[in-house]
Amino acid sequence: MELNPEDDQLLDSYLKEELPQVAREKLQKRLAQEPVLAEALSMRQLISKGVKPLGRQHLKKLFQEADKELDASTNSTSINLLQSSKPSLFPWLAAASIAILLGLAIWWTLDSSTPNRLYLAHYEPFPNLIAPIDKGGSNEDVLAEAVQAYERADYATATQKFELLEPIEKDARIYYGLTLLQSNQMKEAIAELTLVASDKDNRFQQAGEWYLVLAYLKNKEVAAAKIAHQKILATPNHRYFGKAKELVLD
């Protein structure tokens, strides 16, 4: 059974983490109930993981190996044709398989530089470095619950908890910004991460600068991402300098 265009687009948006939280939760319920939809998602994830490592050199090597395989298959077919009136279909099936693999590799290589794919390739959750505070009925309890919900990737609960806090503690603001980022509330996420990145008294300031780059990429604000990225590269002792060097923005 083939997917309809709406579901096809829905799965692509899900993999790119572009769905709003409500739509994401609705799709997750459908995935648990609809085997065909779940299988289609699994196939996309396998293809993505399988061809992601293929860079230009890997792709070139793959083409060269494919040429050798096709030459060998063609020569074998010519010999078989002289010996038998029933030529084998294997060479043509092999050629078709190689063509599909090459097509996937080319698709990933051409598309891997898009802002959202760069975001997905470089985003890692920021760890929970705020110890829970055991005080009944205090503001700190709500803060701990918010950060713990973030750590569990329960962004809906984390958002609700953070919104109960006024003001949000300085060192906790990055967790609120990343919760908004993962909830696809991009304008609010960028605003929060900008506050973190610009506050030199915030102990997570450098982390804020790095995640601001990624937030800009996810929101397809490439020019802003480049400016924030260059700021990190201009600081060799920056905690995220190594990660910034691995991120190539043309």
List keywords for this structure.
Serine Threonine Protein Phosphatase 5, Tetratricopeptide repeat; mainly alpha
H/E topology pattern: HHHHHHHHHHHHH
User: Mind telling me which CATH architecture of the largest domain this is?
Assistant: Alpha Horseshoe
Low-confidence stretches: 51-56, 107-112, 133-138
**What percent of residues adopt helix (DSSP H or I)?**
over 70%
What is the arithmetic mean of pLDDT? 78
Intertermini distance: 40 Å
Biggest β-sheet: count, sense, barrel?
none
Shape: globular
Q: Radius of gyration from the CA trace?
A: 24 Å
Q: For the record, what CATH class of the largest domain applies?
A: Mainly Alpha
Number of domains: 3
SSE diagram, text form:
Layout: H1 5-15, H2 21-33, H3 35-51, H4 56-83, H5 90-111, H6 115-122, H7 139-151, H8 155-164, H9 173-182, H10 186-197, H11 205-218, H12 222-233, H13 241-246
Helix pairs in contact: 1-3, 2-3, 4-5, 6-11, 7-8, 8-9, 9-10, 10-11, 11-12
Description of the structure:
By secondary structure, this protein is an all-alpha fold. It has 3 domains: 5-51, no CATH class; 56-111; 120-246, Serine Threonine Protein Phosphatase 5, Tetratricopeptide repeat (Alpha Horseshoe). The chain is built from 13 helices and no strands. The model is unreliable at 51-56, 107-112 and 133-138 (pLDDT under 50).
